[in-house]
Design brief:
It contains nine helices and no strands. It is an all-alpha fold and 239 residues long. Helix 4 packs antiparallel against helix 6, helix 7 packs parallel to helix 9 and helix 8 packs antiparallel against helix 9. It is globular. The protein starts with 5 loop residues before the first helix and ends in a 14-residue tail after the last helix.
Length: 239
């Protein structure tokens, strides 16, 4: 596995950090550590400072499903924090070389945590889509790819196919990162268009997904063009 370009890795770390922060804040509100109204006021103040068109009604509508389904929210945000924290380190060749057992156990945790993360994300995106049908379609496609990639990665590593496992885990992580990319996309689209966030949300979901997964596929093709194992399948021993 060739070294990930520093610029790409930095982007991954930033997006993962955004995902962790969003999940932590949602979790702190869920468990009553932070007051929901205070958090919403701060978000509105930040949006106003950035010149973004965001109303209190839109923000309330976005947050209501999470408050209405606290158990599903917990199934989403708690795995998300761990998943987005651990996943970037799985792609470190140094960590794999020095701490292979830790890498394997971390990978198992990611697969186990990814299942409730993906299912809960599908629940919110399909039953209460803030961005309407366009968001629901994007969430359905991304969710199916995320869960399918996790299952394929698990099957590959059980068969001893390390390269196949890496490819499918890269795709799964890219889908997870796409939610953070969506937030960045919306921060660009909202001031450019002057449109309310709700009307752009579905487009943001699709663009975030296509940009992030597209970057991952580019990297995988780049790696396949410069193989370091002679193109052979790498077989791993199971622990």
């Amino acid at each position: 596995m060739s070294k990930v370009p520093s610029g790409l890795f930095r982007s991954v770390i930033v997006l993962a950090a955004l995902g962790v922060v969003a999940a932590v804040v949602r979790g702190l509100v869920l468990f009553g550590v932070l007051d929901a109204a205070t958090v919403e006021q701060q978000v509105l103040a930040n949006a106003s400072w950035l010149g973004l068109r965001l109303t209190a009604g839109e923000l309330r509508e976005f947050n209501t499903p999470f408050e209405a389904h606290p158990f599903v929210t917990a199934l989403h945000v708690l795995p998300a924090v761990v998943f987005m924290t651990l996943a970037p380190f799985q792609f470190s060749s140094t960590l794999r070389a020095r701490c292979l057992r830790l890498h394997r156990w971390s990978g198992r945790a990611l697969v186990l945590l990814g299942i409730p993360l993906g299912i809960s994300g599908l629940f919110f995106g399909l039953t209460t889509p803030f961005g309407g049908t366009l968001e629901a379609s994007g969430v359905a496609f991304a969710g199916a790819l995320f869960l399918g990639s996790l299952i394929s990665a698990f099957i590959a590593i059980r068969a001893g196919d390390v390269n196949g496992h890496r490819i499918w885990m890269t795709r799964a992580f890219a889908v997870a990162l796409s939610i953070a990319t969506m937030r960045v996309v919306l921060l660009v689209l909202m001031p450019l268009t002057g449109a309310p966030v709700q009307s752009l949300f579905g487009l943001g979901v699709w663009l975030g997904f296509l940009l992030t997964v597209g970057a991952a596929e580019w990297w995988l093709r780049h790696e396949n063009a410069t193989p370091n194992d002679g193109g052979r399948r790498v077989v791993a021993s199971r622990s």
